[in-house]
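Structure (tokenized):
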């Protein structure tokens, strides 16, 4: 499956957001909520001794990806476009790969 196919599958289950405003709100709130669930799972694993369930890990990241795709659709872009733009930005920022020195001295923060 590629990002275009994933975006299409997400829209099949997109649900009640009928306006751009609703889609943006649903996406932002969903991303925040699901990211919080993911963070809480990692917190419990690292600091409370809970086992890390790969099934739950994949499920939470999948929920985040779903809302990310929905956020892209709200402004008529694709996950593919977002992924390409992100890699292009990172290639400019770290042309030789990540380095701590380049991270500290980025100049764009």
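Design, position by position:
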């Amino acid at each position: 499956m590629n990002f275009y196919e994933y975006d299409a599958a997400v829209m099949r289950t997109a649900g009640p957001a009928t306006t751009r405003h609703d889609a943006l709100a649903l996406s932002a709130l969903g991303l925040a909520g699901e990211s919080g669930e993911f963070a809480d799972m990692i917190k419990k694993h690292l600091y409370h001794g809970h086992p890390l369930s790969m099934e739950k890990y994949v499920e939470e990241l999948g929920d985040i990806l779903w809302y990310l795709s929905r956020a892209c659709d709200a402004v008529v872009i694709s996950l593919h476009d977002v992924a390409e733009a992100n890699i292009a930005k990172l290639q400019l920022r770290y042309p030789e790969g990540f380095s701590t020195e380049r991270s500290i001295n980025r100049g764009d923060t």
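Reviewer-requested clarification: The chain has a mean pLDDT of 94. The first helix runs from residue 3 to 12.
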